[in-house]
């Protein structure tokens, strides 16, 4: 059967086409499947007027034309553009539509346009004359995926800015490989990143020429999709427009989705690189391949926000598969397991915990405090509770990463205090959040709660050791099942605790780990700024190694983040309010703007300008377009969300933004998280330096 593959750009602009034209497209697809040469399709050659002789036109109503690329080998046709007659043909006239015979990627490019873009770019001449691309041999560049005809243009590139100019003109995977090479990756590494292939398992490309489309439906492809008929098209364009993440995955994401593993696997990547998207697609893929429909899949997250978003996205992705996937956040998961396995208590509220600590401190037998009360409470939360430490001996040997030094003597002194606190919890049938996770793990390990066939967990950088052990138990990681556990996370975004290597919890991902490097959320300018907040720090890969952002990039560019100095909170509130007002005048909806952290002064300043506000409260969903109002929320609250514009206020001398070098890593990571929630615009207020 012949196929018609559609290009992402056609789907992206589909909603702008006249209704009559939109209606005809499914008919066109169906006719193609039956007989692509059917005269009723009206496919006609345009040899004389087109540079690429494979270009065909197909008539659509109201004088519109579809640009279809006919194969020289195979029976896969490509619908690459739809527009009014003159515009459609002008678009296609000088373009080439080819499969690259080294990488197998389908590429659209215009040699003249690319060369001219480079010549016209006003970029200062670099002082150093040995930019990496200039020294590469033609053959090397070809293996990197550069079409033969574009090699001369690529060899002209003398700086990062010039390479960036080409980002709009080079085929995307080819541009990505070049960025990787310039950043210092080897050719194999850069190709593996861009194409989602491994050198070991790579299928050799065996195409016979640029018009051989016979393998396009089988190879990972970031811009083309097979559309099988009206229903598929409708499903893709649910709500009238395309949500690209549902259909077009980066080849690395595709690899993650379909990767069959005999043990746990991990997905890493900086903020916005599509980890959650890959994880959701993988959950759906696994749900579709369950052997027994009674088997269950768990997808869990650290924050409540994210689990709410994932739940609704999974239903959009595949409502039938979503029925097999239980989505819940860690807190809820622990509660459910505890209560289903017979526990009758409650998780203590923060106020109740404070009351219990007060009771401990009031106990006259507690006299020797090896550190301050506040530090001891923190020690309990971050070390004792999070690691499930249940004996003094265990405590003496626990690794306390990121905590103040404590010798054996101090630990022995502290232990009775923690025991006293635990006794009070028990007396009232209360558990801490970590305590509930600990109980839940026991319930699973003792067979009081059934494990899942597959477990997927997001935001694992913030999981405690106990939480990691819980998901390991729930997925039976060491029982020899295929694809037991897939975890996703990012060490740059760890904001709740020190790192806990997966390995410590018996989750072994060596050789089964993938890093995503293409940022789909934030502009390149915002990505670079956010990255600068963490400059000089060492970020882990969730396990025992370090992560690197070499070769990372965003898929789009935008205005530079604005950094403004404000003398005090009053000035800060004024600056933020006038910035938000300007954005709204420029067409931003109020709910697309978020200000963090929440400060009453900022709210008052906005309201004085007549701008509605909406506070994002803990555990409550962001209602989106239904509820106008500039969003106000803490940096922790906005994790897992994204906005077109973010303003970060920080008119406080000790704020991390005022002095990165002095700030704690967790605080810097929190600022990184806040900055990377912004898609297009970022305003950062810092304190005016003291005289
Ligand atoms: N293949 C894709 N095509 C288009 N958009 C994508 C794709 N993958 C992800 N995105 C978009 O990029 C944004 C970030 O994706 P996602 O939330 O999955 O990233 P993440 O790595 O989990 O981010 P973070 O760690 O910052 O929460 C989302 O708006 C998502 O829709």
From TrEMBL:
Q: Does the keyword Kinase apply?
A: no
Q: Which residues are recorded as binding ATP?
A: 269-276
Chain segments annotated as transmembrane = none
Domain of life, per UniProt, equals Bacteria
Which keywords does the record carry? ATP-binding, Helicase, Hydrolase, Nucleotide-binding
Question: Could you name the Gene Ontology cellular component terms for this entry?
Answer: cytosol
Q: Pfam families, alphabetically?
A: UvrD-helicase
What is the designated name of this protein? Superfamily I DNA or RNA helicase
GO terms of molecular function: 3'-5' DNA helicase activity; ATP binding; DNA binding; hydrolase activity
Q: Taxonomic lineage per UniProt? A: Bacteria, Bacillati, Cyanobacteriota, Cyanophyceae, Nostocales
Q: Where is the UvrD-like helicase ATP-binding domain?
A: 248-523
One GO-annotated biological process of the protein: recombinational repair
Identify the InterPro entries for this entry: DNA_helicase_UvrD/REP, P-loop_NTPase, UvrD-like_ATP-bd
């Amino acid at each position: 059967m012949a196929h018609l593959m559609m290009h992402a750009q056609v789907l992206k602009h589909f909603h702008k086409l006249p209704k009559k034209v939109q209606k005809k497209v499914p008919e066109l697809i169906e006719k193609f499947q039956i007989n692509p040469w059917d005269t009723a399709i009206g496919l006609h050659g345009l040899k004389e007027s087109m540079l690429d002789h494979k270009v065909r036109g197909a008539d659509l109503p109201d004088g519109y034309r579809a640009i279809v690329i006919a194969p020289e080998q195979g029976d896969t046709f490509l619908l690459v553009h739809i527009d009014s007659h003159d515009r459609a043909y002008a678009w296609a006239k000088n373009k080439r539509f080819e499969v690259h015979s080294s990488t197998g990627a389908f590429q659209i490019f215009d040699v003249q346009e690319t060369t001219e873009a480079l010549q016209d770019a006003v970029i200062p001449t670099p002082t150093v004359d040995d930019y990496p691309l200039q020294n590469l041999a033609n053959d090397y560049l070809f293996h990197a995926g550069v079409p033969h005809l574009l090699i001369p243009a690529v060899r002209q590139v003398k700086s990062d800015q010039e390479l960036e100019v080409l980002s709009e003109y080079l085929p995307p995977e080819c541009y990505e490989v070049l960025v990787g090479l310039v950043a210092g990756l080897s050719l194999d590494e850069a190709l593996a990143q861009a194409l989602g292939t491994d050198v070991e398992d790579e299928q050799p490309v065996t195409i016979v020429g640029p018009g051989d489309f016979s393998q396009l439906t089988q190879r990972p492809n970031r811009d083309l999709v097979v559309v099988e008929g009206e229903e598929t098209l409708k499903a893709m364009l649910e709500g009238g427009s395309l949500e690209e993440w549902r259909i077009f995955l980066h080849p690395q994401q595709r690899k993650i989705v379909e990767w069959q593993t005999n043990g746990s696997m991990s997905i890493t990547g900086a903020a916005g690189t599509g980890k959650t998207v890959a994880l959701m697609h993988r959950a759906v893929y696994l749900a579709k391949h369950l052997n027994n429909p009674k088997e269950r899949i768990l997808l869990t997250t650290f924050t409540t926000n994210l689990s709410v978003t994932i739940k609704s996205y999974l239903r959009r992705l595949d409502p039938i598969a979503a029925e097999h996937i239980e989505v819940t956040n860690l807190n809820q998961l622990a509660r459910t397991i505890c209560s289903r396995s017979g526990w009758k208590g409650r998780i203590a509220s923060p106020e109740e915990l404070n009351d219990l600590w007060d009771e401990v401190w009031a106990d006259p037998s507690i006299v020797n405090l090896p550190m301050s009360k506040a530090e001891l409470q923190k020690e309990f939360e971050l070390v004792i509770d999070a690691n499930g430490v249940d004996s003094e001996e265990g405590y003496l040997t626990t690794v306390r990463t990121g905590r103040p030094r404590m010798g054996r003597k101090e630990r022995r002194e502290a232990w009775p205090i923690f025991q006293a606190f635990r006794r009070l919890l028990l007396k009232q049938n209360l558990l801490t959040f970590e305590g509930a996770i600990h109980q839940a793990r026991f319930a699973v390990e003792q067979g009081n709660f059934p494990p899942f066939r597959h477990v997927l967990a997001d935001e694992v950088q913030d999981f405690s050791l106990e939480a990691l052990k819980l998901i390991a138990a729930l997925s039976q990681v060491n029982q020899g099942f295929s694809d037991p556990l897939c975890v996703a996370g990012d060490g740059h975004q760890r904001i709740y605790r020190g790192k806990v290597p997966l390995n410590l919890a018996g989750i072994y991902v060596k050789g089964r780990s993938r890093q995503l490097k293409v940022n789909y959320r934030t502009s390149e300018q915002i990505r670079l700024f956010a990255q600068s907040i963490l400059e000089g720090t060492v970020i882990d890969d969730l396990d025992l190694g370090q992560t690197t952002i070499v070769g990372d990039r965003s898929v789009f560019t935008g205005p530079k983040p604005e950094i403004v100095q404000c003398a005090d909170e009053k000035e800060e509130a004024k600056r933020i309010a006038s910035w938000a007002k300007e954005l709204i005048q420029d067409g931003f909806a109020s709910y697309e703007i978020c200000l963090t952290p929440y400060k009453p002064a900022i709210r008052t300043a906005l309201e004085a300008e007549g701008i509605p506000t909406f506070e994002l409260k803990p555990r409550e969903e962001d209602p989106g377009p239904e509820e106008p109002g500039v969003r106000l929320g803490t940096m922790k609250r906005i994790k897992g969300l994204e906005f077109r514009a973010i303003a970060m206020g920080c008119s406080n001398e000790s704020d991390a933004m005022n002095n990165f070098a002095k700030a704690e890593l967790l605080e810097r990571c929190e600022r990184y998280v806040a900055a990377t929630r912004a898609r297009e615009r970022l305003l950062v207020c810092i304190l005016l330096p003291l005289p």
